[in-house]
Specification:
This protein is an alpha+beta fold and about 190 residues long. It is built from two helices and three strands; from the N terminus they run H-H-E-E-E.
Length: about 190
């Protein structure tokens, strides 16, 4: 009798994958896919934080440019404070088409505060002007300094925010990190 007719029983093993091997491969692939998903999630959070910081930086420099363009009223920009970010003073909201105030510095304040609210809804900010002439005397602003600050809470981060040079001043009760963007310039 010849054994060539049935090679699986007498010396040759069946070739293929066992159920155990398939299960192990599935577990390894699943672990890899979970790792990729976690990496994607972390990258998305970092991208959102970076986008917010970039927008805040542009807004801070936008206000500095507005103040430089209207130096004669520079001291009035110091009226931009944290509470300005809640309403625009005329309509109570940042509504498109709302009538802007007649003074350039007031219009700049409303436009800027509403821009900040659109980009960073929970942000707070402040403009500090030192050494500028008080408007109303008819004198142009003397040499002075301007500091523009925006702070907001980043709940996606658990780290303490700010830096030793620029600690958070008015963003309290943040569950994450407080981001602080500050720009200083001379007039």
């Amino acid at each position: 009798m010849s054994t060539h007719g049935n090679p699986g029983r007498h010396g040759h093993r069946d070739r293929g994958m066992s159920l155990l091997e398939v299960m192990i491969a599935t577990v390894i692939i699943s672990g890899g896919l979970l790792g990729v998903a976690l990496l994607q999630s972390t990258a998305l959070r970092a991208t959102q934080s970076t986008n917010e910081r970039s927008q805040a930086t542009m807004l801070v420099y936008d206000m500095l440019d507005r103040i430089r363009a209207n130096r004669a009223s520079a001291q009035n920009y110091a009226l931009v404070r944290e509470n300005v970010f809640t309403v625009d003073g005329r309509t109570g909201v940042c509504a498109p088409g709302a009538a802007l105030p007649t003074q350039r510095w007031e219009a700049d304040s409303v436009e800027w505060s509403c821009s900040v609210r659109r980009v960073l809804p929970d942000a707070r900010g402040r403009v500090t002007v030192t050494g500028a002439a008080v408007p109303g005397g008819g004198l142009p602003a003397t040499s002075g300094a301007v500091e523009v600050r925006i702070e907001w809470c980043d709940a996606r981060s658990g780290a303490v925010g700010g830096t030793p040079e620029f600690p958070p001043l008015f963003t309290a009760g943040c569950a994450g990190a407080v981001n602080v963007i500050v720009a200083r310039s001379g007039l």
